[in-house]
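Weekly modeling sync, notes
Attendees: S.R. (lead), two postdocs, one rotation student

Agenda item 3: backlog of single-chain predictions. S.R. asked that every request posted to the team notebook include the full sequence so nobody has to chase files. The rotation student volunteered to paste the first one in as an example of the format we agreed on. Action items at the bottom.

Example entry:
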Amino acid sequence: MRLAKTVLLLTLASVAAWAQVNAGEQKPEASVPFNMTPAPATFELPWRIAFLPDGRMLITEKVGPVWLVSAKGEKIAAVTGTPAVYWSGQSGMLGVYVSPNYVADQTIYLTYSEPGDYGGGLALARAKLALTANSATLQRGTFQVLWHQMPKGKGGQEGGAVAFAPDGQSLFLSVGDRQRFAPAQDPNQPVGKILHLTLDGKPAPGNPNAGKTGARTISLIDPPSDTETAKTAKVVSTYTFPAENLTPAETWTMGHRTPYGLAFSPTGELWEVEHGPRGGDELNLIEKGKNYGWPLVEYADNYNGVPIPRPDTRPDFAKPAIYWVPVVAPGNLMFYRGTQTFPQWNGNGFISGMGTQSLNRVIFDGKGGAKMAERWAMAKRIRDVAEAPDGSLWLIEDANPGALIHVTPK
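Predicted structure, as returned to the notebook:
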C-alpha cells in the first residue's frame, strides 16, 4: 500500500507556479552568511558523503576507498571489503547511501564502475556495515551486486545517484548516457535513464514498462572523442542480454545525459540535476514515464559547435524547471530538512557547483516549480553537500587533495 501511494504521488502531474528560467548568468553573492571550517582530513578525488546515525560519515574516493570519518572530520579507517572499481576519468567509486532502514538492517548501498574486459559499467550493490570505534567493514557474505549495467565499456558520465522513495520501500537510480548519445533514447539500453527498483534491485511495481523484456541484442557504441559528436561514435561489439534481464521494465524516465544529483523534496517530489554539453545544465522534476530529451534537444550546443535543437521545438519532451547557460556544473543535489541550525533553509535545496566553484540554494514551491536564491562563491570545486544529524552542512572538494569543509552559522 505504501509503495502504491509513492507511485501515485510521483505520477501526479505538477503545475509549476514559477516560470522556467535560465540561471546561468546569476552572479555570486558579495559574502557568505556562514562559517566554513576546513576539517583535518583531505581526500583523493572524493565523490559522496553519507551520514551514519551517530554523526560519523562515510566518504567515497573515486579511486576506490570508502572512508569512515569522525563527526569532527578526522579519518578513522578505510572501510574493508569494498569492491574493486574501474577508475578512469569520471568512472570509479561513486556514491554511498545509508539504507532507509539502517537502524534495523545496518545496510549501506554503493554505486561504482564495475571492471570488465573492456572498460567498466555502473553497478549498484549493498552490504551490511559492521562498525567499531576504530573500524568499519562490509560483513562477509552480505555483499550483493543488485544491478549492473551491461554491456560494459568506456566513457564517463555514469550517474550513480540513488534516492530512496519516501516510503522506504524502493529506490531510484540515475544512469548516465556514458557519452554514447543515441542510446539515451533507446528503451532497451540501460543508459541515459532513471531506474525505479525495489530495495533488492528488481524492477519496481508500477513502472511505465512493467513486464516488458525488450530487445535481446544491442550494439555497444564506443564513446566519441572530446569533440563530442554522435557521428564519430562507432560500434565496437554487440551484446545479447540474458533472458531474465528486464531493462525496459526498470525504467522510470529516459533522455538524461549526466544525472549526478537525485533527491526527494520534503513534499515528495523527485528532483534531478544533470550536466549539459557546452551549456544547458538542468534541474528537472522527475515524473513517471517522461522523456527529458537528450540528445535530441538541449539548451546548448555540442562541444564541437554542432547545434542541438532547443526544447521549445519539441513540446513532447519534459522541460527543466531551471537551466544554466553558462553551466553551473552540478555535483549533487540535496534538500535541507533541519529546523535548528539553519531554520531559514528548511525545505530548500542545495546544489554543489564544480565548474562555478559554488554552493547554490534553490527554493521549491511544492507544485513542480523551482527558482534560484543565492549562489555563493566557494573558491573550490564543490562535489557534494550533505546535512549532518546536528543540522550543519559538510562539503567536499573535487580535487586531489580534496578538502572536507564544515559549514556552520555565523
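Discussion: group reviewed the output briefly. The first helix runs from residue 2 to 11.
Action items: rotation student to repeat for the remaining queue; S.R. to check formatting next week.
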